[in-house]
Amino acid sequence: MYNKPLVITPGEPSGIGVEITLKAWKSGYTGLFFLLDDPDRVKERAKVAGLDLPLRIIGKPSEAKEYFSDALPILPHYFSGSCVPGKPSLENANSVIKALDISVEFVEQGLVSGIVTNPIQKHTLKDAGFKYPGHTEYLAHLANGNPRPVMLLVSPTLRVVPVIIHDPICKITDLLTTELIVEVCLITAQSLMHDFNIKYPRIWITGLNPHAGEGGTIGTEEITIIEPAMKILKEYGIQISGPFPADSMFHETARNQYDVAICMYHDQALIPLKTLDFWGAVNTTIGLPFVRTSPDHGTALELAGTGKANPESLINAILLAEQIYSWRQKT
């Protein structure tokens, strides 16, 4: 167990975040963390969901270590509106975002080893005026400097990175550039070396079009954008192969030949990952100066308050954050 705890954000207070956090603590599988949330809200939700567990209010992150073995440490953070399970409120949007601000301040002050974010309700935040597509982009904004947010999804059998993240399909061909692919691949290679202890990462890259363009007969982006990026990356010494048709890159034999699949857009990456291991997959933002992971699922409003939410992805997110922090300390 590390001296510095992880901070877990509440996410959407009407979602399942608090319930899976309670279950993660109860599991006993993780290292040290605390929840940034309203203690009374947590206690009330725990009772409603049949998860009546010991809680301990703390005044600062360092106190989590003293109480973690006997109770879930909670550092108070309050919401402006009511937190009804399954019914998000615009009144709480600012508090949801403020929890992220506070967590980044903690990590920048050296008080925590990393951030694990519970799922947010993106359209609720957008309706309240939030201008970022999601956690990934907002955390990059909060980080010192202007790092490119790169989304790496991890499961025991597959790692994937989408080059285009939270943009409409109709905009992909306008946004996809050789320079962007090079930047994303370099950040990914560095992360695999320093965050996953893979000395010589093997990268496979998908095409954009069906059959990876079929030699230019079903689109030319492979020839004009992706292959030039691969040439530059090879000059940097990156082990990269492709572009391959996306529909034949994710069977077991193919997966055994690479450490990460670079995909051109969101669903091209996340569909195979979630099909293979929906509950076990974890989202981590690489390229940031701090560790950030998250469950790879949404707020599951329909399960909020039922006690039925599966904590596996959050548990894995906590374990991965601990692992990345440990490896970074060694490099």
Written overview of the protein:
The structure is a single chain. With 331 residues, the protein is of the alpha/beta class. The chain has two domains: 1-145 and 290-331, 3-Layer(aba) Sandwich (Isopropylmalate Dehydrogenase); 148-287, Isopropylmalate Dehydrogenase, CATH 3.40.718. 38% of the residues lie in helices and 18% in strands. The chain is built from twelve helices and twelve strands. The chain has helices spanning 17-27, 39-48, 64-67, 93-108, 122-127, 135-142, 172-175, 178-195, 221-235, 252-255, 266-277, 312-330; strands at 6-9, 33-37, 55-57, 72-76, 114-117, 150-155, 158-164, 202-206, 239-244, 260-265, 282-286, 292-295. Helix 8 crosses helix 9. The longest helix has 19 residues, at 312-330. It is globular and about 60 Å long. The two termini are 19 Å apart. The mean pLDDT is 94.
Spatial gap, N to C terminus: 19 Å
From the spread of the alpha carbons, the general shape counts as: globular
Chain-averaged pLDDT = 94
Number of helices: 12
CATH architecture of the largest domain: 3-Layer(aba) Sandwich
CATH top level label of the largest domain? Alpha Beta
Order of helices and strands: EHEHEHEHEHHEEHHEHEHEHEEH
CATH superfamily of the largest domain: Isopropylmalate Dehydrogenase
Got a strand count? 12
